[in-house]
Amino acid sequence: HKTPRVLNLGSGPCSDLYEYLQSKSKHSTKFECLDMDETAIEFGSAVCDNYIDNIKFIHKNAFRFKPDYQYELIWSAGLFDYFNDKLFVRLLSRMYVLVKEGGELVIGNFSDENPSRAVMEVFGQWYLHHRGEEKLTELAILAGIPKEKIRVSQEEEGVNLFLHVSK
């Protein structure tokens, strides 16, 4: 059995990966954390230092990333809501090609129902592309993904939606 590969796209500080690895007793999965922010990679590698045998950090722009293999899972929690629809579709279609048959691509995006949006924009100067379930589905279809392979979920508070695309 081959070791499963997971790509954490726009990995940032890797706190989600650290929490996942801490909750497991055995770690056979290989993770690749891709981010174009060198500081995020340095921070993430320090946070995940105990699990460094399972993680490879890659300093690269997601649009220029071209591995010569595929992944069981591609996960992106906080990257796609920075992109306009055109860039969202372009990167989604590129990443879908990198998902193995039977694998999944999961993309987090702030919901257009986010109650904190005004506070984020006014006080934080943090402007993101908020999207709803219909919009995420529409963008996935535009990326060439069959409708029956698309599903959208949300976390408990409904602030973040997750586009699930299976292959």
Mind explaining what this structure looks like?
- It is a single chain.
- The protein contains five helices and seven strands, in the order βαβαββαβααββ.
- By secondary structure, it is of the alpha/beta class.
- The protein has a seven-stranded mixed β-sheet with strand order 3-2-1-4-5-7-6, sandwiched between helices.
- It is globular, with a radius of gyration of 16 Å.
- The mean pLDDT is 90.
Order of helices and strands: EHEHEEHEHHEE
N-to-C terminal Cα separation, in Å?
20 Å
Mean pLDDT: 90
Strand content: 25-35%
The largest sheet is:
7 strands, mixed
Radius of gyration: 16 Å
Q: What is the helix fraction of residues, given as a range?
A: 25-40%
**Total count of helical runs of at least 4 residues:** 5
Uncertain regions spanning at least 5 consecutive residues: none
* Structural classification: alpha/beta
Taken from the alpha-carbon principal axes, the silhouette is: globular
Number of strands: 7
Within the largest sheet, what's the order of strands?
A: 3-2-1-4-5-7-6
